[in-house]
Description:
By secondary structure, the chain is mostly beta strands. It contains four helices and 24 strands.
Amino acid sequence: MKPHFRYSPQPVLEPLPGCEWASKMVLNPAIIKDPSSDQLHMLFRATGPWSKKRKEGKHDPYPIFLGYAVSSDLGKTWDADYSRPALAPALNEGFEDIYITDIHGNCVRDYSNGCIEDPRIFPVEGELYLSVACRMFPPGPYWLIDQEPSIDTRNDYVPDWVFEGDDAFRVAARTNHTVTVLYKLDLEKLKAGRYEEAFAYVCPLTEGHVSDNRDVFLFPEKMRIDGKMQYVMLHRPMTPASFPQGSLVNSPSIYLAAAEKLEDFASDRATHRLLAAGQFHWEDNRIGASWAPLKISADEWLIAYHGKKDVHFGYTQSFLIVRERENDFPAVTHRCSERLMYAQQEWEMPSDYPTPCLFTTGGIVVGEDLIMSYGAADQKVGVSLVNFGELVRYIKQFDANGRWIGE
């Protein structure tokens, strides 16, 4: 029997008029359960027109921030702090100013300078982390590229100095590609509103001069690969041709990466392997993992993933299962060929944007339920629940290629 998904009848969070950093969009939330209570904690993506940085002849820039919210009823209602962002980009413009102090006290290039998007919260080896898709500079109203006539404002605020050389930093800056950045997250300080102390910049996880790359997060446990215990990461490069087996796929796909150190992921010391490419009609444009894998047995993991067909069909969600292998990357054993989650309710449908979108960025198991947080219509936040055991059993009725194999 197909599992039953229950959805918020109304958005649990939406843009707040008059809030300069969250007046246009509130979407794509990450969630985590409090280990000491029944509270759920959320970081959500938000933006609004940042007129104080507007340049003559340009649209308003739209830097992207993370806000914080808390729920005491397992996600039915949320109390958001709209007084200030929990994590904000620095929005520096000069070549000598785009630096940040990392978790080791080093002064490093700040890839989160312009936008901090699409948070995912997950544990790794007992520590809590946050991954975010970042841009060096804020775009203009970037959604105009999908409208008629198409207007590309994504690079409106890229400064001239990025064209003065061909080093990796300038190449990443001039394209304004997404670079995924890893932070260490202190939940207690986040809960207490001590936002300035809650996030510690660890390192970039992807290389902007190689490819725009997002939907990036880690398995909670290391795995033995190539004779070494390594961190294992999921990622979705926009240009798979830059990675192994990229010639086998025609669109952005889900990759795995392995590295002995977190800092090695954004380097040639990491090894990469194609995990899954689009193969169903609702995946024609791209697929990507949605949030960090959940363990379902000693060597099996559930991976939520999204597919996009086109601007009009939009984003939908499904699931696959991978199994660990001895001294090798995990491999897909079951993949649901059906789109199990997609925009259906009136409030989930697009109004300002042409693309239908239900996009999950958080998934946690509480009791028998998998609780998922999602962005709807690129503008609001919802929550969905499904029985975790029923979902896993249903996914196991498909083989690795999505063929129905039954009970």
